[in-house]
Amino acid sequence: MDEIVCANTAFRYWRCPPQVRDLYPRLPNSEDGWRALSQAPFVNDVLKTPIISVAPPGCCNHHSGLRSTIRWEGVSDAGATIDTHLGFSVTNPLNTLFTMTRFVSQIDLVLAMYELCGWFSVFEPIPAVEMQLKIAEEENRNSSTQDLFELGEGENEVPWKRVYARATVKAPDNEGQSNKRENGREITKLKGTSLWMRKPLIELSDLHRFADKVKSQMWGKQFYVAAQQVIGIAASPLEVAGVLLLSRSRRLGGSGFKYVYLNDLTPLSEAAQSIAGQKVCYGDIVIVNPILMKAVIIEIQGEVIHGSGAVLDHDAERMTALQSMGFDVFLVTHDMLNDKKQLDTIVKSICSRLGIRYQAKSEAMKRVETRLRANVLCNWLEIGN
């Protein structure tokens, strides 16, 4: 295919782990016909149709169930597009987000920005690809995503690591007991989720510089407004949901906390170091009252295992270390964020610990919060579809 893929189609490309892309053959040339192209495995499984691409100069836009084209002046900029080994070009991650602006809602654009600027991607392989990944997954299962944070700046080949969840299943009569925990007639297995860990594809500072650069262009204002809502680097969709529900203005459905930081670096005291086994740690969401010099830390807890159960132990040690230094640490789950009463209780407690006056929301604010909660605690696989 000799097209330049952009917008939502390019977003799906950048979500796909490299080890999955490598399993697919090259795409046929578009001269063979768009119907043949739409039946290519990578298009059918990953890119989906209609394929959104950049219209060649002097050509009319096309809109059908198989393809859709847009006019985009930035296509000629150096580095705006990247050639892939699958036989087509794709917009770089920044321009992918910019060309998405005309196709998605602002809140979905914000979520997409958090994903490409964050340490995670959301991708679900089809069953056939899942089978091909099993061998590699078995080899990497005992590694931890903590290794991703410790990769050197000079390392270009960054592995994507699958995130696993525990699943309890009934054991067949002939099921062996190796690598499984027996529990009556049930065993606990690790099941691959749609969450993958990797290094950020876009630097946060680059996103904000780019947004400032394009804000005078068509669709640039919408892009700029969305980029202003990306305040940090997240490691999971649940962290994004938490930070938006806490940091967004009350008028936009959030809790209105102003000094909010994602994965903030906290030096540990000697006593805390002996607990955590490291000199520094990251708080998932840190909220600060700079006047009183107080801070609370929100630890987002999901029912997943990052590579191995050892990471769960690491999370518990980190929380204990932070508490030993006098930090108020709140353990928050998906269900807590999804329950308006529980979230309101958490907000009240944060205000109390930070010396901030709590203000109850009006009925109109509560309705906006309900919509925001539905948007950020969504099925991330649906973003851009």
Summarize the structure.
The protein contains 16 helices and 13 strands.
Structural write-up:
- By secondary structure, the protein is an alpha/beta fold.
- Helices cover 39% and strands 20% of the residues.
- It contains 16 helices and 13 strands.
- It has helices at 7-15, 18-21, 34-38, 41-47, 93-100, 106-117, 127-140, 146-149, 204-214, 220-227, 237-247, 270-276, 310-324, 334-338, 340-354, 363-376; strands spanning 4-5, 51-54, 67-70, 81-83, 89-91, 120-122, 161-170, 181-183, 186-197, 260-267, 280-289, 294-301, 328-333.
- Helix 1 packs across helix 5, helix 6 (106-117) packs across helix 10 (220-227) and helix 9 runs antiparallel to helix 10 (220-227).
- The chain is globular, with a radius of gyration of 23 Å.
- The model is unreliable at 151-157 and 306-313 (pLDDT under 50).
List the helices and strands and how they pair.
Layout: E1 4-5, H1 7-15, H2 18-21, H3 34-38, H4 41-47, E2 51-54, E3 67-70, E4 81-83, E5 89-91, H5 93-100, H6 106-117, E6 120-122, H7 127-140, H8 146-149, E7 161-170, E8 181-183, E9 186-197, H9 204-214, H10 220-227, H11 237-247, E10 260-267, H12 270-276, E11 280-289, E12 294-301, H13 310-324, E13 328-333, H14 334-338, H15 340-354, H16 363-376
Helix pairs in contact: 1-5, 6-10, 9-10, 11-16, 12-13
